[in-house]
Amino acid sequence: MSWGSPRVLSGLVAAGLGVLLISLGGWWFTLLVAVIVHLGLVEFFRLARSKGIRPASKTTLAACQVLLVLSSHATNQPLDSQWSLGADAVVPLASLVICGWLLLQPQTGSIADVAASIFGFYYLGVLPSHWLRLRAIGGVAPLHVQHWTLPTAGISAGLALTLFTTAMILAVDITAYVCGRRFGRRPLTQVSPGKTVEGTISGCVAAALVGAGGAVVLGWPLAPWSGLMLGILVALSALVGDLVESMLKRDAGVKDSGRLIPGHGGILDRFDSFLLTPAVVLYFVLLVLPLLSW
């Protein structure tokens, strides 16, 4: 693959834009997540409709955006504030509205319609919203990051953790792809025939090494082992996210979820590994790291 190929060029452009908006944080980062969520949901509902499913697409799209806006605002508020509680309340209320909308249609919704709508809301709304909490970790859980050793004074804990998480995901994706094409011999699963055991193991090792290095830089307890543990968890969650998207495409009978990104396919094809991982990293920081520091 040459450096001038559409896949490489579009990847570099996306990476540069992503780093810029992650660095800016705040509503700029929220905008990035909101655009990815919206476009990903459009692709997901297109896959669902190809199977004869009639999801509550507009209602779900609106609910996801409301969740992201409230979640972004809540990151600057106390955990028990009305904004924070409002963001938490969106999940059950959105589920209620989605089901109610399907009930009011001339042709009452089916199990598949309800399942696709609720799954789309959770898969491409609730899970990605954890990126906003991750980016604002210093405000969400200040006691959990007060002893971290940040690389420079200009980098907040949230920025460092978000870039750290992104680096682990990219390490998985890039290493698994390169090593899988070069050394892959044994298929991993029928869901995604292109994935190999060798590529998957290489990706896990790369994420573990990046995780170990990041833990040392951030001054985590039991570093580098705590980072090694997180790197493996990130690799597994990225793999599951990738395979879930492959399963959806296989069921719909398509190769790519879309054609938006040259050389990569659709939004889901490029960002499937980014959907499950922020929640894994966030709760590792909030629940596991305090236990390791005892």
What does the model show?
By secondary structure, this protein is mainly α. It has one domain. It has twelve helices and two strands. A hairpin with a 2-residue loop joins strand 1 and strand 2 (192-196). Helix 4 (82-103) runs antiparallel to helix 5 (111-126). It is globular, with a radius of gyration of 19 Å. Keywords: Lipid biosynthesis, Lipid metabolism, Membrane, Nucleotidyltransferase, Phospholipid biosynthesis, Phospholipid metabolism, Transferase, Transmembrane, Transmembrane helix. It catalyses: a 1,2-diacyl-sn-glycero-3-phosphate + CTP + H(+) = a CDP-1,2-diacyl-sn-glycerol + diphosphate.
Describe the structure in brief.
One of its GO terms (biological process) is CDP-diacylglycerol biosynthetic process. By secondary structure, the protein is mainly alpha-helical.
**Spans of 5+ residues with little confidence (pLDDT < 50)?**
none
Number of strands: 2
> Major beta sheet, specifics?
2 strands, antiparallel
Overall form: globular
Whole-number radius of gyration?
19 Å
How large is the share of residues in beta strands? under 5%
Instruction: Enumerate the strands of the largest sheet in spatial order, edge to edge or round the barrel.
Output: 1-2
**Count of folded domains:** 1
Q: Helix fraction? A: over 70%
- H/E element order: HHHHHHHHEEHHHH
User: What structural class is derived from the secondary structure elements?
Assistant: mainly alpha
- Our count of helices gives 12
State the separation between the terminal residues, measured CA to CA: 48 Å
Mean pLDDT: 89
